[in-house]
Structures are given as structure tokens and as C-alpha cells.
């Protein structure tokens, strides 16, 4: 993409990487796979944040919208108790099989379920409450997931979304043909105005929004 900016100074980014604890072999293999395939996995800095957020609210039920091959899901799985539940989703069947293999290697298969299909349809079909919902679907659907997610979260639950600073493009007026940036900006503005969510934005990697549900 043109005119992208580094959200985090590269020197600081390398320093943050150096502070990460040693990761299990399956995480390292998945990171190599993501790099080789140019797949936008959240990476270990965000992964650690996801685990900490889930642990901080004693999450037992977590849903992911746009799970890929299960990288971010495994960070959540580390935070869940043995009787926890993690619902993964993606529109590609091949990612389901890859995620199931990765969870099997990590010994976390018993707490996960993977559904293939459209995230908005999944949200309509699901019944809550969930403790945490992670959003990483295609950006054009970002504004549409807010209200269904709000319905499914418990009070005090967290709504976490990836790529909310979108290569720094959200800080400028989008080009006429840049619909993706427009959708991300709309999403951020809707969260800002939402009476039932309290939201902050973290300039980590490509931006992470964290919203807590404050009203039923």
C-alpha cells in the first residue's frame, strides 16, 4: 500500500519484541508460516495483549470473528480454563483444517470449535453471553459487527478489534477510491459515540481498539 506509516517506531518495535517471553514451538512455526504466505497474523506483541485481556476478566467464553489458521485463537486458549469455550470462525475451509491441526499440536483442541462461514451470519445465529469477542473480519464489515457484538457480550465484557489504525491512513481523509479506510474510520467513530461501550485505541502494531461493555 502507498503512503503507509509505521504506527510504532521500528526501533521501539524491535525493543518490544526483545521483551517478549520465549514462545512455544507451534507459535514460532505459525509465525514463520504467516511471514512466508504474507498472512496478516496479529503477531506476538498483540497475541500477548489478547491473552492478558482475557485473563484480566477471567474469560470463560470467547468468540473470534476472522480467525485465519488459529494464531490469535491460541493466545486466547492459553488464558481459558479447562472448561472454557473458544469459538473460531473464518470463511475459508482450509483455515479450519489448519487451525484444528495447530490446536491439536498445542493440546487445546478440547476447548475450541471452528465454524466456516460469514461472520455476520454467525453473530445473528449465536446466543450469548460471551466474555470477550475479537474482531478481525474484512474491513468493509467492521461497522456492521458492532451492534451484534454488543448484544452477545456480557456487561463488563470486552470487544477487541485489530487494524483500527490501518497503516496510519485513518488520520487523513481517504482517497476517493479508498473505501477500506473509510470503513475503519466509520467503525472507530461509531465506537466513540456508542453509549454502551467505553473504548480506547492502542497504537500497537496496526492499531488495536479495546471496548468494554458498560451497559446492558
Could you characterize what this model shows?
This protein has 216 residues and is an alpha/beta fold. The protein has one domain: Rossmann fold (3-Layer(aba) Sandwich). It has helices spanning 10-18, 25-36, 43-56, 71-79, 93-106, 119-125, 142-152, 179-193; strands at 61-65, 85-90, 112-116, 130-135, 153-162, 197-202, 208-213. The protein has a 7-stranded mixed sheet, sandwiched between helices. Helix 5 (93-106) links the parallel strand 2 and strand 3 (112-116). The longest helix is centred in the last third of the chain and has 15 residues, at 179-193. It starts with 9 loop residues before the first helix and ends with a strand.
Task: Pick out its properties.
Rossmann fold; 8 helices; 216 residues; single chain; alpha/beta
In a nutshell, what does this entry contain?
42% of the residues lie in helices and 20% in strands.
Distance between the termini: 40 Å
Specify the CATH homologous superfamily: Vaccinia Virus protein VP39
CATH topology (fold) name: Rossmann fold
Give start-end ranges of low-pLDDT stretches. Answer: none
Class based on secondary structure composition and strand pairing: alpha/beta
The top level CATH class name: Alpha Beta
Describe the SSE topology.
Layout: H1 10-18, H2 25-36, H3 43-56, E1 61-65, H4 71-79, E2 85-90, H5 93-106, E3 112-116, H6 119-125, E4 130-135, H7 142-152, E5 153-162, H8 179-193, E6 197-202, E7 208-213
Parallel strand pairs: 1-2, 1-4, 2-3, 4-5
Antiparallel strand pairs: 5-7, 6-7
Amino acid at each position: 500500500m502507498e503512503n503507509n506509516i509505521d504506527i510504532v517506531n521500528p526501533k521501539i518495535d524491535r525493543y518490544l519484541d526483545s521483551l517478549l517471553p520465549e514462545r512455544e514451538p507451534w507459535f514460532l512455526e505459525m509465525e514463520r508460516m504467516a511471514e512466508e504466505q504474507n498472512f496478516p497474523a496479529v503477531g506476538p506483541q498483540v497475541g500477548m495483549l489478547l491473552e492478558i485481556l482475557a485473563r484480566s476478566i477471567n474469560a470463560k467464553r470467547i468468540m473470534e470473528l476472522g480467525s485465519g489458521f488459529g494464531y490469535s485463537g491460541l493466545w486466547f486458549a492459553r488464558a481459558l480454563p479447562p472448561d472454557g469455550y473458544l469459538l473460531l470462525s473464518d470463511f475459508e475451509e482450509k483455515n479450519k483444517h489448519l487451525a484444528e491441526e495447530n490446536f491439536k499440536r498445542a493440546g487445546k483442541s478440547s476447548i475450541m470449535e471452528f465454524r466456516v462461514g460469514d461472520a455476520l451470519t454467525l453473530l445473528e445465529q449465536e446466543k450469548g453471553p460471551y466474555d470477550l469477542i475479537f474482531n478481525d473480519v474484512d474491513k468493509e464489515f467492521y461497522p456492521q459487527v458492532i451492534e451484534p457484538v454488543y448484544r452477545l457480550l456480557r456487561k463488563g465484557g470486552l470487544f477487541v478489534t485489530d487494524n483500527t489504525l490501518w497503516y496510519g491512513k485513518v488520520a487523513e481523509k481517504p482517497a476517493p477510491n479508498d473505501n477500506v479506510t473509510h470503513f475503519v474510520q466509520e467503525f472507530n467513530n461509531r465506537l466513540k459515540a456508542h453509549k454502551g461501550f467505553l473504548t480506547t485505541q492502542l497504537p500497537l502494531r496496526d492499531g488495536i481498539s479495546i471496548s468494554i461493555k458498560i451497559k446492558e
